[in-house]
Amino acid sequence: MEYTVQLNSLLKLFRQYMNDDKDVTRFYARCRDGTATYKDVYDLADKAGVKMSDLLKKQILDQFPNGIPPEAVDAIIPPALREQCDAVIAGADRVQAIVNKKAGVSLAPAEMHPDEDRILGLADHFKESGFTDEATELITNLAKATVDETIQANAEFQNDSGMQVTVTRVYDDVGLNHGKDPCQWCLDRCGENVPYSTAVDMGMFERHPGCGCRIEYHTVKGTKIQSNWRRNVWMDSDAILKWRRGLGLE
Ligand SMILES: [Zn+2]
Fold first, then answer.
1. Phi, psi angle pair for 141, to nearest 5°
2. How many A from CA of 170 to the centre of ligand 1?
3. pTM, 2 dp
4. Residue 94 lies in a domain
5. Ligand 1 mean position to 7 CA, how many Å?
């Protein structure tokens, strides 16, 4: 493993940063006192993405002035990006537990893993195009997409469990061309309290590089039961879970 030393030193620096940075420390303090929100996880993802991109440039790419060879990309980029995704997933998991508790949902957060397709796609992109100026945006986009995927997985799970889930996507006000033009693509995907399945159809969970939109979802504590014999009966989320467990559905 020719590039193990470089990879390990990069991972070490990234972990140190995610341990010591004052904003990250503050984020985990807010997780402990139960005030952290998904907006905070998006900020965490932003920091992780910018830091990882910075480390890749300084620690790895500077060693290859004539361009990074494909073997080095394969050896270093996917594990580095997995590390970044894991850091974001750890933060998102903490916030999801808070969100569930506040919504009265007695479910554990959905277990998330780094998105291998996205990671390998990004590694291929770097092999083909090199580490261009847009690399930071692409790496940060992967970090934010990790948050999107966590939110969607939990929203879907709760929706499928018979709860009323709605999705809100807030426009980032960043727009295109350095703020000169509004981003119609994002505006078409923004909305407030949109029912989960409509939100998926609208593409509310999709994101382009450089996109700063924030997504969140809400679970209504009262739940409409879909079965015939109890149509339109509203129950507490805990009650419906017990009821579903009784039927062997959970
Ligand atoms: Zn946009």
1. -60, -40
2. 11
3. 0.84
4. yes
5. 33
Total number of domains constituting the chain: 1
Concatenated DSSP letters of 196-234 = HHHHHHHTTT---TT---EEEEEEESEEE--SGGGTT-E
Q: How far apart are CA 237 and CA 218, in angstroms?
A: 13
> How far does the centroid of ligand 1 lie from the alpha carbon of residue 132, in Å?
20
Q: How far is CA 72 from CA 3, 85, 116, 127, 245, in A?
A: 7, 20, 18, 9, 50
For residue 153, how far is its CA from the centre of ligand 1 (angstroms)?
A: 22
Number of Cβ within a 10 Å radius of residue 26 = 12
Q: Cα(62) to centroid of ligand 1, in Å?
A: 31
Structural domain span for residue 99 = 4-161
In a domain, 58, yes or no: yes
CA of 207 to the centre of ligand 1 (A): 7
- Say yes or no to pLDDT of 245 above 90: no
Please provide the average confidence, as pLDDT, over all residues in the chain: 87
| 227: in domain | no
